[in-house]
Amino acid sequence: MTGVSTVLGTFGEPSNARQRYAAAVSFLLLLSVSINFYNLSANRWGNAFYSGAAQAGSQSWRAWLFGSSDPHSAISVDKIPAALWIDGLSVRVFGENSFAMFMPQAVMGAACVLLVFAIVTRGVGIVGGVAAGLTLAITPVAAEMFRFNNPDALLTLLMTASIWATLRAIEREQARWLIFAGALTGTAFLAKMLQGVMLAPILAGLYLLVSPLALRQRFVHLAAAGAAMVAASGWYLLLVELTPSRHRPFVSSTLDNSIVSLALGYNGLGRLTGEEIPSWLAGDAEVGAVRPDNGPTRLMSGEIASQISWLIPSAIVLGLLGLALTSRRPRTDLLRAQLLAWGGWLVVVGGTFSMMKGIVHAYYTVALAPAVAGLFGVGAGIVWRNHRRRAVLAGGALAVLVGAAWSVALLRRVHSFHPQLKYVVVACAVAAVLALARHAYDRARTSGVIAMVLALVALSAGPAAFTAYTIKRPTQGPIPVAGPPMDGGFNRRAPMWPRPGHGFHGPVEAAVVSPPLRRAVEASPARWPVAIIGATRAALFQLGTDRAVLPIGGYSGLDPYPTVRQFQEMASDGRVRWLYTSPGPAAVGLKSPRSQAYLIYAWVQSSCPVATIDTTPFFDLSRCRAESLHR
Asked: What Pfam families would the database entry show (predicted)?
């Protein structure tokens, strides 16, 4: 890599560099696979909302293509289903079980760790690469989301791959790599919509700034990459928009059944403005939102801090140190390009998460984990290679002290969690600084290695402990959070909702359906034997019975499908038999008198009798008053 080899003061290139590279890859692969696959099936169905859609996709190719919540394609999930395509195929191949649901994310996580290692190693050597890969592997939110079935694992891998392809394009001076980066960014859009393209301005700016090609040629290449991004994302929007609505599911989290509205509204600008759902429809309902105060300190506050922020202070110090050391280098310097890539990612995406006024969940920050790891790894590699310069060692010592202080601050927020760990962090940090001070004078390899090891222990002890806590305990429900509950936060691992009856044990209990209830559902000839308001509980019932369940109103119960008239027709012609009397906890549509779910429930309550199947109450839609069906 041109420009990188001029970093001064290395310990020397080992004669067995290939063997060391292979050993580093083996270590990181073993570590990430162990973390991602350990106790994986304990998560049962994880986020049942997506597990139910993966189940549906394994039974129906139409449901698979459109990301439907049920095999008969009534309503889609609230995302473009790129991640569900992978999960659905996994379930088709490996069967309907927890391992098949989560294995793709575990593999993606391991691939992301190795990719970050490869990128950083190419810039600053194996030591920096291992530091980066290790940091990513033990980041609590990464450990959580790389073993959970939300689309964030795929998003994170694609964002990392787009950085790799862009740096490759700059180094090779070849447009095809930049076009590939554009295609990867467009595919990331299919994983999580506008969040997937947040790196686009960073990639474009980096290429314009660093590429050695003529300015006109750079713009031409960027135009081609932009076209690739639009093509990679736009084909699916066109497919959904051009498919007649009767041949596809209703697009969830929209009012007009448009995938464009979903991309630009609920999953787009609505997240920035806080207006994901129109106030006239939502009323007083809270649409499953976690809205900590937005501002520059959000990433370092509350529950979010314990997910991602452990090494952010150290990474920033090391990043600034690296920029200072490379400030006199040519515009095309590739080492500085890495610093700008990782740092730009952290600033732009982290700044967006900090300032957005809409729905924010702590697990979103997994999209920052490669940036923090990459910036930290590049900085660590620079310190390692410039160990003869006392100013650099001083910067490294500052990074250790700042990072250790922040780790202690985070650990103090969890009083009952390994209280002795704070002292281990402090002791290792002080010892690392003393070892660096000694190395500044004796220049011995031994003192340098000891300082590096102690620094890594000091900075990784906290997140590693949180990650160990995370993988030992099951994660179920729609909003995963890594680590023990922080002071002022709450433990989303605990069961969130009460059990409504003995026949169907409520959602986080993994859709336990009693044999009598299952037999009754299996015997029903209806297309949807059961309808439930709220897609999460509907998905759990569907997973427990292996029969299609109609999720009235989609995830939140606010989707205008089916309308009360459509539901009456479904009940009249026998397409749906029972309505579960206990709506899902996220079904806030019942709090909005203007929602179709509210109107449906009101009609059923007034017109249809309650039938009990193994202590679980349902409205029997086959016995509704005839005159009420024609109102």
From this structure: PMT_2, YkcB_C
